[in-house]
């Protein structure tokens, strides 16, 4: 695509130009246009075209903050190719502090979309037509769902060579293998020939400093990898490829007190949380089903049977031993800082480990 004309929303961006475009997505009840903000940066020299999108879920604004920070200073200057930045995709959800669109559909389950379908389907089609089809690579930024937090991790279909290289180049400590849910943006982008990865990090409704640092650093790593920027990539303290994850769920209703923080390594049988009755009586101890790392946790301490408590990514005992040493000895490590930052949003108390752990 390097030498093809670049036109978005009817606006042509020529080599060496940067333009802000309001891409029309829908209309209000009064017929006024609803526009998605897009910044297009095009270098004079031809090269790869990369998009970075955020807030496909309107309440997941850590990605919005990442793009916002990336736009400051010289971080977004490129020497070749084109960079398309979309800080808010789901403008309607963003305006209402809502994950979903007004039609109650999940935009990230509506791709590739249709020009004659539902509101979600039409917006999905517009994004595929105006952004995906004009790019060679994509990065989509997400946070956890309502009442949860995610320790920073990249998710990608590692069976595709180009996607795998992109995921590893981002430089996140955790890379989770998977195609993505049916109808998700990254899955359909990959099917359309545009290798795309996602970053999952932090909570909804928040812009968290350590998440911003990891996100901005990751975007820059990708651009260096693609030859669009000069410099040396910043590697993570370790990089683990995750093939299996599992949610640990509550078995009885009650109030949780956690014994681990997001991003903490755990061993099989280690206490994750204690479930207390509403009057303070201990009901049961929830333990880890495997060796691994806590990549997601509930921030809502009240639970019913079956509700998620902790998301564990499986690692070997040897991996845990190596990674803990690298994380603990690294200076100014945003991943260590993310552990501390995200832990402030859950009630954590000490508890002696179970026997044998």
TrEMBL record:
<dbReference type="InterPro" id="IPR053138">
    <property type="entry name" value="N-alpha-Ac-DABA_deacetylase"/>
</dbReference>
<keyword id="KW-0862">Zinc</keyword>
<dbReference type="Pfam" id="PF24827">
    <property type="entry name" value="AstE_AspA_cat"/>
</dbReference>
<dbReference type="GO" id="GO:0016811">
    <property type="term" value="F:hydrolase activity, acting on carbon-nitrogen (but not peptide) bonds, in linear amides"/>
</dbReference>
<feature type="domain" description="Succinylglutamate desuccinylase/Aspartoacylase catalytic">
    <location>
        <begin position="46"/>
        <end position="226"/>
    </location>
</feature>
<dbReference type="InterPro" id="IPR043795">
    <property type="entry name" value="N-alpha-Ac-DABA-like"/>
</dbReference>
<dbReference type="GO" id="GO:0046872">
    <property type="term" value="F:metal ion binding"/>
</dbReference>
<keyword id="KW-0479">Metal-binding</keyword>
<protein>
    <submittedName>
        <fullName>Succinylglutamate desuccinylase/aspartoacylase family protein</fullName>
    </submittedName>
</protein>
<keyword id="KW-0378">Hydrolase</keyword>
<dbReference type="GO" id="GO:0016788">
    <property type="term" value="F:hydrolase activity, acting on ester bonds"/>
</dbReference>
<dbReference type="InterPro" id="IPR055438">
    <property type="entry name" value="AstE_AspA_cat"/>
</dbReference>
